[in-house]
Amino acid sequence: MPTFPLAPADYSSRAGAYIVDVLFVVIPPTAAFFLALLLVFAGVPLSLWTLFLVFGIGWLLVAGLWNDIIRQGTTGATFGKSRQSLALVRSTTGESVGVGLAALRVLTFWVFNVLTGGLFLIADLLTPAFNGRNQRLLDMLLNTLVVDTRRIPAPPQTDPLDHFEIGDANGDPLA
Fold first, then answer.
1. Distance of CA 160 to the CA centre of its chain
2. What is the reported pTM?
3. For helices 46-65 and 11-41, angle between their N-to-C axes, nearest 10 degrees
4. pLDDT greater than 60 at residue 167
5. Which residue of 30, 38, 47, 67 is 20 to 30 Å from 153, comparing CA positions?
Protein backbone atom coordinates (compact mmCIF):
# COMPACT_ATOMS: atom_id res chain seq x y z
CA MET A 1 0.00 0.00 0.00
CA PRO A 2 1.24 3.49 -0.78
CA THR A 3 2.25 5.77 2.07
CA PHE A 4 1.82 9.55 1.87
CA PRO A 5 3.01 12.51 3.97
CA LEU A 6 0.39 13.73 6.45
CA ALA A 7 -0.18 17.18 4.91
CA PRO A 8 -3.98 17.77 5.07
CA ALA A 9 -5.65 18.74 1.82
CA ASP A 10 -7.36 22.12 1.65
CA TYR A 11 -11.15 22.36 1.58
CA SER A 12 -11.41 23.64 -2.01
CA SER A 13 -9.45 20.66 -3.38
CA ARG A 14 -11.63 18.26 -1.41
CA ALA A 15 -14.80 19.95 -2.69
CA GLY A 16 -13.53 19.82 -6.27
CA ALA A 17 -12.70 16.14 -5.94
CA TYR A 18 -16.15 15.40 -4.49
CA ILE A 19 -17.85 17.18 -7.40
CA VAL A 20 -15.75 15.26 -9.95
CA ASP A 21 -16.60 11.97 -8.20
CA VAL A 22 -20.33 12.74 -8.20
CA LEU A 23 -20.25 13.71 -11.88
CA PHE A 24 -18.21 10.58 -12.74
CA VAL A 25 -20.85 8.35 -11.19
CA VAL A 26 -24.04 10.30 -12.04
CA ILE A 27 -23.64 11.69 -15.59
CA PRO A 28 -23.49 8.39 -17.57
CA PRO A 29 -26.62 6.88 -15.98
CA THR A 30 -28.48 10.18 -16.27
CA ALA A 31 -27.64 10.35 -19.97
CA ALA A 32 -28.70 6.70 -20.38
CA PHE A 33 -32.01 7.40 -18.60
CA PHE A 34 -32.86 10.37 -20.82
CA LEU A 35 -31.83 8.45 -23.93
CA ALA A 36 -34.07 5.56 -22.86
CA LEU A 37 -36.90 8.02 -22.21
CA LEU A 38 -36.42 9.51 -25.68
CA LEU A 39 -36.49 6.04 -27.20
CA VAL A 40 -39.71 5.18 -25.35
CA PHE A 41 -41.47 8.27 -26.72
CA ALA A 42 -40.07 7.55 -30.19
CA GLY A 43 -41.73 4.12 -30.14
CA VAL A 44 -38.51 2.10 -30.21
CA PRO A 45 -38.91 -1.55 -29.14
CA LEU A 46 -38.70 -2.43 -25.45
CA SER A 47 -35.37 -4.28 -25.67
CA LEU A 48 -33.33 -1.28 -26.85
CA TRP A 49 -34.42 1.28 -24.28
CA THR A 50 -34.34 -1.35 -21.54
CA LEU A 51 -30.69 -1.88 -22.40
CA PHE A 52 -30.01 1.79 -21.68
CA LEU A 53 -31.82 1.60 -18.34
CA VAL A 54 -29.87 -1.53 -17.33
CA PHE A 55 -26.62 0.20 -18.32
CA GLY A 56 -27.52 3.26 -16.22
CA ILE A 57 -28.38 1.25 -13.11
CA GLY A 58 -25.33 -0.97 -13.57
CA TRP A 59 -23.06 2.06 -13.94
CA LEU A 60 -24.41 3.59 -10.72
CA LEU A 61 -23.70 0.40 -8.79
CA VAL A 62 -20.44 -0.75 -10.36
CA ALA A 63 -18.77 2.64 -10.88
CA GLY A 64 -19.82 3.87 -7.46
CA LEU A 65 -18.60 0.79 -5.61
CA TRP A 66 -15.42 0.49 -7.68
CA ASN A 67 -14.55 4.17 -7.26
CA ASP A 68 -15.33 4.55 -3.55
CA ILE A 69 -14.32 1.15 -2.22
CA ILE A 70 -11.90 -0.72 -4.47
CA ARG A 71 -9.99 2.17 -6.05
CA GLN A 72 -9.90 4.36 -2.94
CA GLY A 73 -9.07 1.39 -0.73
CA THR A 74 -6.10 0.22 -2.80
CA THR A 75 -4.63 3.48 -4.13
CA GLY A 76 -5.99 5.93 -1.57
CA ALA A 77 -7.69 8.03 -4.25
CA THR A 78 -11.02 8.02 -6.04
CA PHE A 79 -11.29 9.27 -9.63
CA GLY A 80 -11.88 12.83 -8.39
CA LYS A 81 -9.21 12.70 -5.68
CA SER A 82 -6.60 11.52 -8.18
CA ARG A 83 -7.47 14.49 -10.46
CA GLN A 84 -6.90 16.83 -7.50
CA SER A 85 -3.75 14.96 -6.30
CA LEU A 86 -5.42 13.90 -3.06
CA ALA A 87 -5.42 10.60 -1.19
CA LEU A 88 -7.34 9.12 1.74
CA VAL A 89 -4.94 7.70 4.36
CA ARG A 90 -4.91 6.51 7.94
CA SER A 91 -4.25 9.61 10.02
CA THR A 92 -1.69 7.84 12.22
CA THR A 93 0.52 6.15 9.61
CA GLY A 94 -0.12 7.82 6.24
CA GLU A 95 -0.90 4.46 4.60
CA SER A 96 -3.82 3.88 2.25
CA VAL A 97 -6.94 2.82 4.11
CA GLY A 98 -7.48 -0.57 2.46
CA VAL A 99 -10.65 -1.97 0.92
CA GLY A 100 -12.21 -2.94 4.27
CA LEU A 101 -12.00 0.52 5.82
CA ALA A 102 -13.08 2.14 2.55
CA ALA A 103 -16.17 -0.12 2.54
CA LEU A 104 -16.85 0.72 6.19
CA ARG A 105 -16.55 4.43 5.34
CA VAL A 106 -19.16 4.15 2.56
CA LEU A 107 -21.48 2.02 4.70
CA THR A 108 -21.20 4.41 7.67
CA PHE A 109 -21.89 7.39 5.41
CA TRP A 110 -25.09 5.84 4.04
CA VAL A 111 -26.33 4.53 7.40
CA PHE A 112 -25.92 7.94 9.08
CA ASN A 113 -27.60 9.68 6.13
CA VAL A 114 -30.59 7.34 6.29
CA LEU A 115 -30.89 7.72 10.07
CA THR A 116 -30.72 11.53 9.96
CA GLY A 117 -32.74 12.10 6.80
CA GLY A 118 -29.77 13.58 4.94
CA LEU A 119 -28.77 16.09 7.63
CA PHE A 120 -25.59 14.13 8.22
CA LEU A 121 -24.57 14.78 4.61
CA ILE A 122 -24.71 18.53 5.11
CA ALA A 123 -22.86 18.45 8.42
CA ASP A 124 -20.29 15.96 7.08
CA LEU A 125 -19.48 17.99 3.98
CA LEU A 126 -19.26 21.32 5.83
CA THR A 127 -17.12 20.10 8.74
CA PRO A 128 -13.76 20.38 6.87
CA ALA A 129 -14.30 24.12 6.48
CA PHE A 130 -14.23 24.55 10.26
CA ASN A 131 -11.70 21.89 11.23
CA GLY A 132 -7.95 22.45 11.58
CA ARG A 133 -7.04 19.23 9.75
CA ASN A 134 -9.86 19.63 7.19
CA GLN A 135 -11.44 16.33 8.25
CA ARG A 136 -15.02 15.30 7.60
CA LEU A 137 -17.04 13.79 10.45
CA LEU A 138 -16.42 10.36 8.91
CA ASP A 139 -12.69 11.04 8.83
CA MET A 140 -12.71 11.89 12.53
CA LEU A 141 -14.84 8.85 13.37
CA LEU A 142 -12.72 6.38 11.35
CA ASN A 143 -9.34 8.03 12.04
CA THR A 144 -8.62 8.88 8.40
CA LEU A 145 -7.28 11.98 6.67
CA VAL A 146 -7.36 13.30 3.11
CA VAL A 147 -3.87 14.49 2.22
CA ASP A 148 -2.43 16.52 -0.63
CA THR A 149 0.02 14.28 -2.48
CA ARG A 150 1.62 17.23 -4.30
CA ARG A 151 3.08 18.65 -1.11
CA ILE A 152 6.61 17.50 -0.52
CA PRO A 153 7.44 17.18 3.15
CA ALA A 154 10.02 19.65 4.42
CA PRO A 155 13.50 18.25 4.92
CA PRO A 156 14.39 17.52 8.53
CA GLN A 157 15.70 20.51 10.46
CA THR A 158 19.45 20.43 11.05
CA ASP A 159 21.60 22.82 13.00
CA PRO A 160 24.02 24.57 10.61
CA LEU A 161 26.59 24.85 13.40
CA ASP A 162 26.83 21.04 13.62
CA HIS A 163 29.03 21.08 10.50
CA PHE A 164 31.80 23.12 12.14
CA GLU A 165 34.28 22.14 14.79
CA ILE A 166 35.94 24.54 17.18
CA GLY A 167 39.10 25.94 15.64
CA ASP A 168 37.98 25.18 12.08
CA ALA A 169 37.73 28.71 10.78
CA ASN A 170 40.15 28.36 7.84
CA GLY A 171 42.82 30.72 9.03
CA ASP A 172 40.64 33.05 11.09
CA PRO A 173 42.92 34.45 13.84
CA LEU A 174 40.00 34.85 16.24
CA ALA A 175 38.98 31.21 16.14
1. 39
2. 0.77
3. 170
4. no
5. 67
